[in-house]
Design a protein that fits this description.
Structural class: mainly alpha
Order of helices and strands: H
Number of strands: 0
Strand content: under 5%
Number of helices: 1
Distance between the termini: 108 Å
């Protein structure tokens, strides 16, 4: 193998590595975008569930408050 063949082999190797690197960057960017979308969706879900919990808690307190007033009336 002469020097020109070695240089050509090195050039091809570098071009292949550059291509693989570019593909990996593209896939990594796509995966990060997908992960960001999933995190945002999860955040919205958690927010909605917490709102439901707070609403339910408020309704329970209202019911419990009504029950306490009814108990006070019965005791008197």
């Amino acid at each position: 193998m002469n020097i020109d063949e070695r240089i050509e082999a090195l050039v091809q190797s570098v071009e292949l590595l550059a291509s693989l690197h570019k593909d990996n960057e593209r896939r990594n960017t796509e995966q990060m975008d997908k992960t960001d979308r999933q995190i945002k969706r999860l955040g919205r879900y958690i927010h909605n569930v917490s709102e439901l919990i707070l609403d339910h808690e408020a309704r329970l307190r209202a019911v419990e408050g009504d029950d306490e007033e009814d108990d006070n009336e019965i005791e008197q």
